[in-house]
User: Fold this.
Amino acid sequence: MSRPSELEWIGAVVVAHATPAAPDLGPARELVCGGAIEIEPNDWAIGGAPASVRRRDDVRARAAAHQ
Assistant:
């Protein structure tokens, strides 16, 4: 089995998040539209810090917690 391409993976994530868990809780899947746009980590922020810095700090904190 081959691995999905990055575009296929992103598409699957969009569908999973845009599709209600139970059909009777929201609109029909055919009526739901969604999309994903890749944004470089330096071009957006989390809590006022560049995402590249915040994510770097998150990764380091998780690594330190598992040591």
About this structure: DSSP finds two helices and two strands in the chain. The longest strand covers residues 45-46. The mean pLDDT is 76.
